[in-house]
Queue: 3 jobs
Job 1
Amino acid sequence: MSQENVEMARRGIAEINEIYKTGEFSRSLPRIREVCDPDFVLRPSGMFPEQEEMRGPEGFLKFMHGQAEAFEPM
C-alpha cells in the first residue's frame, strides 16, 4: 500500500471516529464526500441488521447512522 493510500485511510478513519463521537451524521455528508469515492459500494456481510447494498457517500453515511443507533451513548 502506498504512503498516499495509508494517509487517505488514516484521514477516513479519523473522520469516521469524529462523526461517531459527535453524532453529526447529516452535517457530515460534505466531509464524507471528501474521503469516500462516489463509486463506493458497501455490501453488509450478514452480521449486521442492514442487509441492502449501499452506494456512495450517502450509502456509507446511512450505514454509519444505522450502526450508531444500535448502541446507547456512553
Note: The first strand starts at residue 41 and ends at 42.
Job 2
Amino acid sequence: MRKRFEQQFSLGQLAIKDIEFTTRTRDRLSSMYRALKEIFVNPEYNEKVFAILEEEITKKKKRTGRTGMDLWMIFVLAQTRMCLAIDYDELQHQANYNKLLRQLLGVEIPFEVGVQFKYQTLVDNVELLTDETLRRINDVILMFGEKVFKKKRNGTLALV
C-alpha cells in the first residue's frame, strides 16, 4: 500500500516545511519547488492533490502488499521532469544528487547516503501519472496560485 508521505524523520533530517529557498533567482526549478512546498504545507490543497494522486495511482491495486514509492515523491519527481523537460537519466541524476530536490522529497539525511533512486524505479513510478492526471492537479495548483501568488507589474506571478 502506498503512503502519501513518510512521516518518520531520521536524526538531522529537515522537515519540508522548514526548507529554505533562494528568493532572488530566475531559475524555474527553484520557483516550482517553492510552490510545491507551499502545496505540501497548505492542508486544503495538500488534501486535494493527494486525493487525485491516490485515485489515479492506487485505483486498480490491492491495499496490501509491498509498499511503493510515496505519492509525494512521485508527484515531485514528475513535476521536476516536466519543468526541466528532461529524460529519466537526468531525472535520476537530479533525484540522487540535487540536495534541494532530495530535501523536498524527504530523503536528504545529513552525513548519510540515504535513499538512492534506480532508473527503472523512477520510470515505473513517474509514468503512473498520466497527462490527464497532471492536468487535474495543475487545475488545483492554479486555484491555489490565485490565493498564494501575487501578480507583479510585468504580469508574472510570484509567491507572496
Note: Residues 26-159 form one domain.
Job 3
Amino acid sequence: MRAKTSAGLLMYRFKDGALEVFLAHPGGPFFARKDNGHWTIPKGEVHQGEELIAGAIREFAEEVGKPPEGEFIPLGSVRQNRGKTVHAWAFMGEWEPDRVLSTTSFEMEWPPFSGRRQMFPEVDQARFFSIQQARRKIKPAQWPFIERLMGKVADMTPAAPLEPLG
C-alpha cells in the first residue's frame, strides 16, 4: 500500500502582539470527545496530477468554508506516524467563525453494526489558538509546522521574538 500525500495551510495572525495559529478539529464520532493532540492544520489528500499548493488551497476552502488569500510561505513537509506525508504553507489571515462551514463530509455506519449510514463533516470546529495552546492541541507530528512558522515570522512579531516550546 502506497503512503498517502496530503497538503494544507496554516493560517496565522498577530493578536495583541502575539502569534496565533488557526487549527481544525476533525469531525465524526471517533473524534467527538478527543481534544488535545487531535487538532490539525486544515489539510487533505492531493488529487493525482494536482500541484501540492493547489491541493492545500482547495482543502482549506473545503474544510473550513473560507477560501484562503494572501502570500503563501512554504513550511516544508512532515511524515506522520502511519507514513502519510503532509506538505504545508502558512499565510496571514483573519477569521472568527461562529461555526465551521465544512463543504465536505464523509459517510459511515454509525452506530457501529446498526446498519444506519450517517454523514459527518470533515471538520466540526476550527479556531485560532495561542502558540502555547496550539502546542497541546495539534497532532504532535504537525508541531514542526508551527515551529517553522515561528522562525519565519520572528522578525514580524511586534513583541519579543517567540521561542519554540520544548
Note: The domain at 5-153 is CATH 3.90.79.10 (Nucleoside Triphosphate Pyrophosphohydrolase).
